[in-house]
Write a structure and sequence with these properties.
By secondary structure, the chain is of the alpha/beta class. The chain contains 7 helices and 6 strands, in the order βαβααβαβαβαβα. It has a 6-stranded parallel β-sheet with strand order 3-2-1-4-5-6.
Amino acid sequence: MPQSLPKFVILDRDGVVNLDSDHFIKTPDEWVPIAGSLEAIAMLNQAGYRVVIASNQSGIGRGLFEMSALNAMHEKMYKALAALGGRVEAVFFCPHTAADNCDCRKPKSGLYEQIGERFGVELRNVPTVGDSLRDLEAGVAVGCVPHLVRTGKGLRTLDKGGLPAGTRVHDDLAAFARWQVAEGAHKTPAPTAHAAQHAP
């Protein structure tokens, strides 16, 4: 069956894949997956989607943890995913603080541009999933379709409003994965304004 869209999904990390903390996730022990999130990635993989993570990690720039700790967190994630038959293609992260005024810290789109270049894909209409407005804005800047989850900071983000047009809202990553796999089976039609939110 012809597939007009690249089968990619771009995820934020903290609050989407793993539990978030206002004090940052600094060690592998603090990295705890949200219930069902790793299974959701495996489900997407099994449906033919390549999953990539784009994450702000300013804790590095703030000196709260080292690169070795971040690598250990991701090694924990990769091993847990492998046990479920899942895989993340790559983790793209910004180590900078807001004061650095870099191009890769979301809501700027640098991480997404790096993903497009690395994999040689056009990101227009690729779904991106986040729990904060800046996640969605960074994706929309390169043409991604925004999806908000209610986990992490998602409820706060929803309450604030101002979501990009066409944003779909899901309870969690597992709910998004079920929706995306079902949509993908129908060639993923363009989102319509009247279906901006996923039913609670």
